[in-house]
């Protein structure tokens, strides 16, 4: 696979072990960056550990001091084809030498419609589709919210407790994964309602999760629709088919199918947020395909361009054709260089069967990680996931944070999510050998923290 070629790049000797930690972390060069950063950047940035990446290839990151890390967070599920994939790099270089920018909002960029066309070919939406390109997932969520309200003429939108849809005002109003995202920003966007997500109940003492599929629908039908708003006033339900920042929770297919049926019953649009779960991460191009459900609107970003800023929301053509010129636009959205990276990303996922690789390596990771529940029952309470979207839940958030730090110091990059979960979302090019290395390091990290 291309990942093997990347790992043998000129700056990384084939016989050099990976990971390779050569300095105390952070090293001296990294410390200089941290010092400068502390003086000039916004303190709102939620840094988790002192990683100072300098360059990267495949699933390996080298920091400013030459330390090598195995990357199992992929820049928060962004570098889908691995870091600096040759096909993506060449596409970016070629496009940068031809045209850096012209606004597709007011003029006709050939590569904009090419990217839209390539995306429609893999969407889980039947019939004629239309696409709007953005710079980020949050922007795409905002656009999807506007479209849902505009197309239906209805004011209300439902999201789920535990959901994360972004940090801009509309997107953060939908977000309900942590109260800190709302603190100090009220009043938020009006007309936003929330309902329970599957597996959302967690015992704070044991860390165990319970699932009551009826809780969602009982709340919607017998509380929200009865006491707050009539369903005929709801424009859309925003759904993450796998909960991302809320804890990498995988709901049953039947639960998603019932959400689709509820939407059909009341004429509500189903808006699927695939920002983190899409682009092959779950072993399918889109996680919603695992439930056999077709959305009305789909939102994508993160892995869509292997690291360049690009997002999109797509819908059935008859839905998007309800708004007219000027209803929505973006100066930079769908800019030429990110579009080139997006086209190369789609080509690479197909050419290298990266969805199949996500399934194969993901099964190996799930199998190995599941053993931790039996080995450390007072520490690891659950292992769940699909493809390369895997969550390891701990009894406490403090344990998860400690394991995350231990792994970093041993050369494995993982990242917390939810209350007490560590996510594993490596690049789709990750190899079985790298997965085995990650399992060894992560297991040692858990053992160092375990009670």
Please write out the topology:
Layout: H1 2-7, H2 28-40, E1 53-57, E2 60-63, E3 68-71, H3 74-77, H4 86-96, H5 110-120, E4 129-134, H6 137-152, E5 156-160, H7 169-174, E6 192-195, E7 201-202, E8 209-210, H8 213-228, E9 234-239, H9 253-266, E10 269-273, E11 297-300, E12 311-316, H10 317-320, H11 336-351, H12 354-375, E13 380-386, E14 389-394, H13 397-409, E15 412-413, E16 415-417, E17 421-424, H14 432-449
Parallel strand pairs: 3-15, 5-6, 5-9, 9-10, 10-11
Antiparallel strand pairs: 1-2, 2-3, 4-12, 7-8, 11-12, 13-14, 14-17, 16-17
Helix pairs in contact: 4-11, 5-11, 12-14, 13-14
Descriptive report:
The chain is α/β, with parallel strands linked by helices and 451 residues long. It has two domains: 2-71 and 353-449, Aspartate Aminotransferase, domain 1 (Alpha-Beta Complex), CATH 3.90.1150.10; 90-351, Aspartate Aminotransferase, domain 2, CATH 3.40.640. Helices cover 38% and strands 17% of the residues. The chain has a seven-stranded mixed sheet with strand order 4-12-11-10-9-5-6, with helices on both faces. It has a four-stranded mixed sheet with strand order 1-2-3-15. Helix 12 packs parallel to helix 14 and helix 13 (397-409) crosses helix 14 (432-449). Residues 1-8 have low confidence and may be disordered.
